[in-house]
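Here is an idea for our session: we take a single protein and study its fold together. To get us started, please write out a protein record for me. Once you have written the record down, we can walk along the chain together.
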Amino acid sequence: DVRLVESGGGEVPPGGSLRLSCVGAGFIFKNYDMSWVRQAPGKGLEWISGIYPNGEAHYPDSAKGRFVISRDNYANTLYLQMNNLEPEDTAMYYCAAGPINLKYATLDEYVFWGQGTQVTVSS
């Protein structure tokens, strides 16, 4: 079975930090581009970071300087360090496998995806 399991979400005040993790199993993790995407209630899927197997990272302008994606191919784990969180960052966060250069509107367009972890930023 292919699995991607996210963890590390929670509730933090504005300005806080969180580190999300995503463990993959059942596929050759090191061969895949990996991304973090998020979806807030009533909004569409938003790509917030991507990383190639070699560790090269890419971000949209909205995430640059606050979010850092990384991966450990030996541990089959993807990470997202999020700093200076804002209420607008409140969403369900998902990790997903699939080409970074393609823009997907829905999770099921990715090759694999997890069940998500909730991030809430509130005072």
Remarks:
- The chain is about 0% helix and 45% strand.
- The first strand starts at residue 3 and ends at 7.
